[in-house]
Amino acid sequence: MVNKNPIGLFDSGIGGTSIWKEIHQLLPNEDTIYLADSKNAPYGQKSKEEIIELSFKNTEFLLNQNCKLIVVACNTATTNAIKELRAKYNVPFIGIEPAIKPAALHSKTQKIGILATKGTLNSELFYKNVEQFQEIQIIEQIGFGLVELIEGGKIDSDELQELLLKYLNPMVQANIDYLVLGCSHYPYLIPQIKKIIPKKITIIDSGEAVARQTKKVLEEVVGMNENTHLSKNLFYTNTNPEVLKEILENKYPIIAQDF
After folding, report:
1. Is 183 assigned a catalytic role?
2. Helices and strands of the chain, counted as H and E runs
3. 40 contacts 12 by C-beta, under 8 angstroms
C-alpha cells in the first residue's frame, strides 16, 4: 500500500525533534511536516483543557497540509489529549508516553526515577501506567524550568546544570538504576545528565519505540511512501527559528509564522 502524503508531528516546541530524528532515521523515504508550538511552551504547566485545545489547533494545521498520520511528539499532549484527539479526528495518532514499563521490568534495585513535566506526571494516563508496577518504587520529579531553558537555547548554561543537579541527586541517592525521560525535550540533556549520574544508571527515552510504532501503523493501516529520492522535511515554528535551526544543524527549511 503506497501513500505519498507526509507524516505530521507536533510538540510544544523543539523537543519533539528528538522524536522526529528517530522517525526520519527509520523511515528516510517518508516526507514529514513538523509543527513547533514554541509560543505556547511549556504545555506542562497548562490545564488539561488548554492542552486539548492546543492539540486540536495543531492537528488541524497538520491535517490542512494533508498529513496521513499524526505523531503527538509531546508527552504532556499525549497523556492529556490523545483520547480526545482520536475521538475527534479520523486519522491515526501515535502518542509518546514515558517508558515506565521497560524500566520497571528490568530494574534490579526495584527503584526507578522519572523526570517529566507537571502535566505528564499529573495525568490520568500516567497514573494508570504507574499503577501496574506497585512493587517498584518510582521517584517522580517535575523538571521545572528545563523546557524554557532548552527552548531558549541554554542547554549548556550553568542554570540548567544546577537544576539537573537538584533534580537528579535525590534519585541517585535513592539508588535508582533506570532514569526515564518523560518529556521529548529532555533527550537533548543526555550529555549533561551523564555527567551527573553514575554509569550504572540506564537512561531511557521513548523516541525509538515511537519510530517503530509509526512504521508499523504505516505498513498495516496508512501506507508507505516508497520514493527513492530524498524525502521532503518541512518545519514550522511560531517563534524565533534560531534555536530550531541550531538543533537541526541548518539542514532543513524552517517557516516562521503565527498559528
Report:
1. yes
2. 11, 10
3. yes
Active-site residue identified among 51, 62, 142, 183: 183
Q: Which cell goes with 190?
A: 543526555
- C-alpha cell of residue 62: 497538520
Residue 67 annotated among the catalytic residues of the structure? no
Nearest CA-CA partner of 69 in 9, 145, 140: 9
**251 phi, psi to nearest 5 deg:** -95, -15
The 3-state DSSP class for residue 182 equals strand
Who contacts 146 (Cβ-Cβ below 8 Å, separation ≥6)?
A: 115, 160, 163, 164, 183, 185, 186, 189
- 224 burial (CB, 10 Å; 0-12 / 13-18 / 19+) is middle
Distance CA 67, CA 11 (A): 15
- What pLDDT, in 10s, does the model give residues 52-62? 999 999 999 99
* Phi, psi for 25 (deg, rounded to 5): -65, -40
Q: How far apart are CA 93 and CA 68, in angstroms?
A: 10
Choice among 72, 74, 99, 243 that is catalytic: 74
For 192-222, write each residue's pLDDT tens digit: 999 999 999 999 999 999 999 999 999 999 9
